[in-house]
Amino acid sequence: MMNQLEYNDWLKRQIDVVIERVICPHCDGRKRVECGKCDGIGEVECEDCCEGHVPCQDCMGKGCPECEFSGLKTCESCDAKSEITCGNCDGSGYTECEDCGGTGKTYEQKIEAITAYELYRKIFRADQERLKALGKVTA
To answer: Who wins on pLDDT, 107 or 86?
Structure first.
């Protein structure tokens, strides 16, 4: 059990690191970032074809009536567009920010000389403000 002298010493002890919740610097609080796979476009290059076409499997690219003697058929994956929907962002161009887990806020260590008592008062005031906002404290 802590005696009064030890308790007073504890209250005066300096705390050097305070962890605060701040706006995420990676996403600026927007909760999402531009997709790194498609650069925010929402589409990526189709890897199944070359410029929207694939070699005809019936003639092995030599030319036949099935491919109109071109040796190529339309790529079914991209429908000859050469691009498909990005699987990383499902075509939105954005992904959840990994730094903040999609919350828009992150924790930051801030070096601050503060006593345990001052820290307690800071937390107490923040709690009082929250309770006041909820209408649970009238003072």
So the answer is: 86
Helix (H), strand (E), coil (C) string for the chain: CCCHHHHHHHHHCEEEEEEEEEECCCCCCCCEEECCCCCCCCEEECCCCECCEEECCCCCCCCCHHHCCCCEEECCCCCCCCEEECCCCCCCCEEECCCCCCCCEEEEEEEEEEEHHHHHHHHHHHHHHHHHHCCCCCC
pLDDT, the chain, mean = 82
Would you give the distance in Å from CA 42 to the centre of its chain?
16
pTM confidence score: 0.51
The yes-or-no verdict on residue 92 having pLDDT over 90 is yes
Segments making up each domain of the chain, as ranges: 1-29+104-139, 32-96
Which residue shows structure tokens 């429908």? 79
